[in-house]
Amino acid sequence: MSKSLYLRLGGYDALAMFATKLIGAAQKDSVLGRFWENRSADRNDRDLQVLIDYLVRETGGQMYYTGRDMALAHKGMGITAVDWTRFIEIVQNVAGELGVGPTEGGEVMVFLESLKGDIVTA
Ligand code: HEM
User: Does residue 74 belong to any structural domain of this protein?
Assistant: First the structure.
């Protein structure tokens, strides 16, 4: 049996690192930062852990995801196609920084693209 994307990306620690860097960069970003304005540290900690759980589950790891589905989680935020493009750029930067290979990187992109319709609503 072929190895899951989860294992090929490096398992839990690698995905936790990826999510932490991604959220950190998005929160500081001039295009995306507005989505995290006026949020409590507790809320941000919770969102980060839930994102890690989600990524682990979706890539084939064993994690029980307690968060909402992507449409509900992002409903009413007004995320635009421009925001999405910037988000993908940040994902690519972080993936490059962490040395994600082209095969795994491509699979991550296909997965993210499958979520776009639920997340981009403006
Ligand atoms: C432009 C792109 C995106 C923006 C601006 C964005 C922004 C946000 C914000 C502000 C929250 C906090 C919601 C809350 O606490 O009520 C959130 C939650 C979340 N986002 Fe995103 N997001 C984006 C793309 C994505 C993508 C591509 C994924 C999946 C790979 C994702 C996964 C999640 C998860 C799992 C949560 C927590 C769900 C929950 O609250 O139960 N987001 N997002």
Answer: yes
CB of 18 shorter than 6 A to ligand 1: no
Closest alpha carbon to 95 in 26, 39, 19:
19
Q: How far is CA 105 from CA 78, 97, 118, in A?
A: 27, 12, 21
pLDDT band at residue 1 under the 50/70/90 scheme? low
Amino acid at 30: S
Nearest CA to ligand 1 atom 19: 73
Query: For the chain, what is the largest distance between any 2 Cα atoms, rounded to a whole number of angstroms?
Result: 46
The pLDDT of residue 2: 84
Residue 2: inside a domain: no
Checking if the pLDDT of 43 tops 70, the result is yes
Nearest-angstrom CA–CA distance, 118 and 75? 8
Rounded mean pLDDT, 17-28: 97
